[in-house]
Amino acid sequence: MSAPTVRRRRLGAKLRALRGDLTLEEVAEKSSGDFTYSKLSRIETAKNAAKPDDVELLLKLYEELGRDVGDELRAALLMLTKEGSQRGWWHSYRGILTPVYEDLISLEAEATKLSTWQAGMIPGLLQTAEYAREIITATAMSAAVEAKVDALVEVRLARQSVLTRERPLDMWAIISDSALQTQSVGEGVMREQLGRLLSLGKRPNINVQIMPANAPPHVGQVGSYTVLGFEEHADLDVVHTESLTAALYVERRDQVAVYREGFDRLRAPALSVEASMARIAQVRDSL
User: Fold this and answer.
1) Nearest to 263 by CA among 285, 241, 248, 284
2) Most exposed: 5, 8, 129, 136, by fewest CB within 10 Å?
3) What is the biggest distance separating any 2 CA atoms in the chain, rounded to whole angstroms?
4) Beta strand ranges found along 92-169 (DSSP E)
5) What three-state secondary structure class fits 212?
């Protein structure tokens, strides 16, 4: 059995919320034999992948019990179920990607909105191939990762298709000024990277702000993070944070709200989008 994915946990948490004060035993009894205690428990705890038919039955039951199950919520939960069983392009990189990284890629593929604060580097979705190669190489902490650099660069570039798909991902990135001034190993790497930022910043679905070096103290000094949003269902939003040794997903609605508010606060001390484009061009032209 594969490890629980973020999608499964989000689905399980929402179904648990719909269950309310009913016990699993009570739901099993009211389901007329469609569910057992153990089956419901495995779905809610993400130990088993739920089948679309099971989710449909559960939602119908909860609706009959007076729960608020609207068409949009039903569609969102069924999307989580069905997408979780589909194979994305990233499955061809099995053995190279960690399960946590696969989760991130699948979440980016499903999200409609992404807000990211990056204190030390250009966000992965906006990177050039050579800049990505330098960053991946510099942060590789094992020989195993060093051996996969070429494949990991391919993956990073493939992820960027979410920005140009039919319904492109809306991305808002706040980047520290220091990230613009990284001294690259390869000649012209940073100039090309900054040029790409300027080009992508012209797209209507991408906004880039730069946090100036002389900004007052702000919440972003705690660390970088990304908020992935899913249309009108804010309770399904997920926060992704990363360190040298682990990646963490924050899924509790109250905690996600803190990160979302933190991002809104970061926008104030950052340069405006227009001023940010001018700053990026200034740094690029100085190289």
Assistant:
1) 241
2) 129
3) 71
4) 113-118
5) coil
